[in-house]
Each structure stands twice: as C-alpha cells, then as structure tokens.
C-alpha cells in the first residue's frame, strides 16, 4: 500500500492508474459534506434541537408518534443544507466525470444533494435526498403544494402525510440504487472511497466488492479506517484537498506543478 500523508504528495503510479482507468466508481460519506459546513449525523444538535437524540428522530416510529416534530427537525436540517455550497471535493468529482472517457458512477451516503449541485451527473443516492418529499402511501416523490402550510404537508394525491425522502433507521436502502452501486463496484477497475468511516453497511462493503473484482482501491480520509490496510493507496487528508490535486494531476496541463514537485 502507498501511504501518502502530510501535504498529500501523489504517487506517479496512482496518477497513471487513474488516467488509464476505463471505469471508475467513487463512494463518498459525511466527511465530504462536512467540508461544506453540513453537520455530520454524529455531531451534537444545536439550539432548539440539542436536547433531542437524532437517532430517536430518524425512525419510522418517531414519525408515527410525532410527525410534526420530525418534520420540523428535517426542515431545520434542510435549511442548513440550503445554506451550504459544494466544496472543491465536490467540484473535483464533477470534473473527473466530465474528463473520463470510460464509465463513471458516484455513490454517496450523503442526503444533501451537493454532488448534483456541483455538476455530477451519474449519482446514486443510497440514503435518499433530504431536499425531496415522499408520499409513503403512493411511494412517489411529491412536492408539497405551496398553499399547504400544514406541518407536515399532505400528499396532493392521496392526502397522506408527506415525509422526507431519506432512509430512516430500521429501513432498507432503496433496492435499485443499491443494486446499481454493487454492479458499479464489481465492474470498475479503480474505486475511490472518500470521506467515509467505512463503518456503515451495506455501503462499507462496496470497496471490498471492488477489490474482489481486481480493482485498484484508493482511500481518501484524514484518519485511518477499517478500509485503510486494504487500500492500494491511502491519501491522508480532506477530500476537498486531495481530490482536486488528484484530478489536476491526472488531467491538468502542468503535471509536475499539480503533483507538488
């Protein structure tokens, strides 16, 4: 394994492998969003919400018990996301997709939609998107009526309470995106894991699926994770620093400068 820390000096061999890759899959986690100011789920709540445990609000049971409370909590989280902007890590992944001749799939555990706002096209949102609303009866994405000021708003079609389009504790991940994510992991020849702890399953299994299929595995994280010792390259640093440098080194005109030499 090539271990790169400090100022993230990129190995020439990694740049060559990225440039020659025919198919790339990327998995991102909360560390990427945190660089945009989006609080991670594990961080303490603030203000009105500091007395609530997020693990007790993000469940179907909590919504059945008090839908107004849960909807208001998610409205507060939506406001945080709306104020956030894509960071250089998001932008670098969008640029990587634009420049890559072969296949590219971006798999994210984040629900903020920042990857799409940065310009990424082929995005699999394993945990949903907090900015969307879902009718749990019709199982379709629905935008609340502008005239509906009730909390939570109702589905214009069937009248059921809408809910955030996110995966709650105790719920299965959406089968379609999950199956596509595993296909992408098995079919790629280079897999990048960025800003994720490697602890949340089933997403944590994706890098190992890629490894079993012979892919080169790259991890980008400030700290060691359960994945680190299995990675071919471990870049120690923030995604917002490492990803732009990696993409610039691969597609930029001045490779020496982008490699920090």
Mean pLDDT: 90
User: What is the CATH architecture annotation of the largest domain?
Assistant: 3-Layer(aba) Sandwich
Q: State the CATH superfamily name of the largest domain.
A: TPP-binding domain
Q: Note the gap between the termini.
A: 21 Å
Q: Could you tell me the radius of gyration in angstroms?
A: 19 Å
Q: Helices and strands, in N-to-C order?
A: EHEHHHHHEHEEEEHEHEEHH
What overall geometry do the principal axes of the alpha carbons give? elongated
Structural class, from secondary structure content?
Answer: alpha/beta
User: Uncertain regions: pLDDT < 50 for 5+ in a row?
Assistant: 254-261
- CATH hierarchy, class of the largest domain: Alpha Beta
Strand content: 15-25%
Here the CATH topology of the largest domain equals: Rossmann fold
Enzyme class: transferase
Cofactor: Zn(2+)
Binding site for Zn(2+): 135, 155
Keywords: Cytoplasm, Metal-binding, NAD, Transferase, Zinc
Secondary structure blueprint with pairings:
Layout: E1 2-4, H1 12-20, E2 23-28, H2 30-34, H3 54-57, H4 60-65, H5 67-83, H6 88-99, E3 103-108, H7 114-118, E4 123-125, E5 128-135, E6 140-141, E7 163-166, H8 175-187, E8 190-194, H9 206-212, E9 216-221, E10 233-236, H10 239-251, H11 255-258
Parallel strand pairs: 1-10, 2-3, 2-8, 3-4, 8-9, 9-10
Antiparallel strand pairs: 5-6, 5-7
Helix pairs in contact: 1-10, 6-10, 8-9
Keywords: Cytoplasm, Metal-binding, NAD, Transferase, Zinc
Protein name: NAD-dependent protein deacylase
Catalytic activity: N(6)-acetyl-L-lysyl-[protein] + NAD(+) + H2O = 2''-O-acetyl-ADP-D-ribose + nicotinamide + L-lysyl-[protein]; N(6)-succinyl-L-lysyl-[protein] + NAD(+) + H2O = 2''-O-succinyl-ADP-D-ribose + nicotinamide + L-lysyl-[protein]
């Amino acid at each position: 394994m090539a271990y790169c820390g400090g100022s993230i000096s990129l190995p020439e061999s990694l740049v060559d492998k990225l440039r020659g890759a025919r198919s790339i899959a990327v998995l991102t986690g909360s560390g990427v969003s945190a660089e945009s100011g989006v609080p991670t789920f594990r961080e303490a709540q603030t203000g009105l919400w500091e007395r609530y445990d997020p693990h007790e609000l993000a469940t179907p049971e909590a919504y059945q018990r008090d839908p107004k409370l849960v909807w208001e909590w998610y409205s507060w989280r939506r406001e945080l996301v709306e104020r956030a902007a894509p960071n250089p890590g998001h932008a670098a992944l969008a640029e990587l997709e634009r420049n890559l001749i072969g296949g590219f799939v971006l798999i994210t555990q984040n629900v903020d939609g920042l990857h799409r706002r940065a310009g990424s096209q082929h995005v699999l949102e394993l945990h949903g998107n907090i900015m969307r609303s879902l009718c749990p009866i019709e199982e379709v994405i629905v935008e609340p009526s502008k005239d509906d000021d009730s909390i939570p708003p109702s589905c214009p079609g069937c009248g059921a309470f809408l809910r955030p389009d996110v995966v709650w504790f105790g719920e299965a991940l959406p089968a379609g995106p999950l199956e596509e994510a595993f296909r992408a992991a098995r079919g790629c020849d280079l897999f990048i894991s960025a800003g994720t702890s490697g602890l949340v399953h089933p997403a944590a299994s994706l890098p190992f699926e890629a490894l079993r299929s012979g892919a080169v595995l790259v991890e980008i994280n400030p700290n060691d994770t359960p994945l680190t010792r299995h990675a071919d390259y471990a870049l120690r640093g923030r995604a917002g620093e490492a990803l732009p440098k990696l993409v610039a080194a691969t597609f930029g005109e001045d490779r020496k400068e982008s490699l920090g030499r």
